[in-house]
């Protein structure tokens, strides 16, 4: 079997799942606001449920994957449950039921992206190719979905959000049956080996410091749709903004093999942090949605560079036997804890002040995180000297 053919199911899977994920990330906040009439604070609660579910879900499924030495079978279980619970979520209207079924939906969806990335990293290592060339298909799926679904919802109404969600989700499930599992580690995973991850001080400090930057990223993910609508934009314009951002992200992932190994991984994280800081402070003073869209090209230079560099750094810090668990731990910090803090913080700031004020706060978060990573990098260099 050729490399190209063997990777086609994985690339298609990433395309389909991230296309599904777009709908959750880009349009659920608008759906909750416009169709269900929730306030900014209530939307923050619903969005915080997702990362809270991820805190429980990702370590659990990561451990199960390492223990039973399969990613493929876990993905099939997760996607089947996700589709069932999402049907219920999109058909409930009281806040209590929305929160309950949001928890179940996120419990099964949260680990899927992490497992897809972990599988892509392992397959890339096996075939000696760039992780970014595989992962870019997730970004392409996200970009295509954001544009197409944005147009669809502008024409048909936000209340029809369930149909594209089920379409892309079902495609991801079908393709999951054709995935190739990564070569399992010959060592067996135990709770003791997982405990070693928490005793790794370099890993723990790195995750703590980077979290200031990832909080700013996840808060923007949750509220950029509401921000654009607040500035006078439509669902279609929200889709265009995501499309511009994610196409720049896909370009960074696709070309990673040419630039990524040129400098120390932490230098890329510092550059991304500086650009995040500039990006958020600019968003804090903008009042035209089209200017926001113009600046969305920075998404590739911030998120894609940060994610690629941090994922690579984490991979080199952890033993192979707990790589699935380690990658899920990274996802838990990047998308989970950061998402909870961002969602709970962002809603009240928008309710009491404005979306512009929220982005100014995010600028300070990114700035603090960047300074901490610079200190971390300097201390590591001093210790090596």
From TrEMBL:
GO molecular function ontology, one term from the record: lactose binding
Location(s), subcellular: Cell inner membrane
Membrane topology per record: Multi-pass membrane protein
Residue ranges constituting the Major facilitator superfamily associated domain according to the UniProt record: 8-360
Top-level lineage group: Bacteria
Classification via InterPro entries: HcaT-like, LacY/RafB_perm_fam, MFS_assoc_dom, MFS_trans_sf
Membrane-spanning residues: 12-31, 43-62, 74-92, 98-116, 137-155, 161-181, 202-220, 240-259, 266-286, 292-314, 326-345, 357-379
GO cellular component terms listed in the entry, alphabetical order: plasma membrane
Alphabetic keyword roster: Cell inner membrane, Cell membrane, Membrane, Transmembrane, Transmembrane helix, Transport
One matching Pfam family: MFS_1_like
Protein name: Putative transporter YwbF
Organism, scientific name: Alkalibacillus haloalkaliphilus
């Amino acid at each position: 079997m050729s490399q190209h053919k063997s990777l086609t199911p994985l690339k298609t899977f990433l395309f389909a799942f991230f296309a599904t994920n777009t709908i959750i990330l880009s349009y659920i906040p608008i759906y909750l606001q416009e169709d269900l009439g929730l306030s900014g604070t209530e939307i923050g609660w619903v969005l915080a449920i997702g990362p809270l579910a991820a805190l429980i879900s990702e370590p659990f499924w990561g451990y199960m994957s390492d223990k039973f030495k399969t990613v493929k079978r876990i993905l099939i279980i997760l996607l089947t449950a996700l589709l069932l619970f999402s049907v219920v979520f999109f058909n409930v209207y009281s806040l209590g039921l929305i929160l309950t079924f949001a928890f179940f939906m996120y419990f099964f969806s949260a680990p899927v992206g992490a497992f897809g990335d972990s599988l892509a990293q392992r397959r890339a290592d096996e075939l000696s190719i760039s992780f970014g060339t595989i992962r870019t298909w997730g970004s392409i799926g996200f970009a295509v979905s954001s544009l197409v679904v944005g147009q669809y919802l502008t024409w048909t109404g936000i209340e029809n959000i369930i149909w594209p969600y089920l379409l892309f989700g079902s495609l991801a499930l079908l393709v999951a049956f054709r995935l190739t599992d990564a070569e399992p580690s010959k060592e067996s995973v135990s709770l003791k080996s997982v405990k070693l991850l928490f005793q790794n001080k370099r890993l723990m400090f790195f995750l703590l410091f980077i979290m200031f930057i990832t909080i700013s990223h996840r808060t923007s993910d949750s509220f950029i749709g509401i921000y654009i609508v607040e500035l006078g934009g439509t669902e279609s314009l929200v889709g265009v903004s995501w499309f511009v951002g994610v196409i720049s992200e896909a370009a960074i992932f696709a070309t990673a093999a040419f630039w990524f190994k040129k400098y120390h991984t932490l230098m890329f994280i510092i550059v991304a942090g500086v650009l995040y800081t500039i990006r958020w402070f600019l968003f804090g003073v903008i009042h035209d949605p089209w200017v926001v869209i113009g600046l969305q090209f920075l998404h590739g230079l911030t998120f894609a560079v940060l994610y690629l560099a941090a994922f690579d750094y984490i991979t080199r810090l952890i033993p192979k036997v707990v790589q699935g668990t380690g990658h899920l731990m990274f996802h838990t910090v990047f998308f989970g804890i950061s998402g909870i803090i961002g969602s709970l913080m962002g809603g009240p700031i928008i309710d009491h002040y404005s979306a512009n004020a929220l982005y100014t706060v995010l600028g300070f978060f990114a700035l603090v995180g960047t300074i901490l990573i610079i200190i971390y990098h300097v201390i590591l260099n001093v210790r090596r000297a």
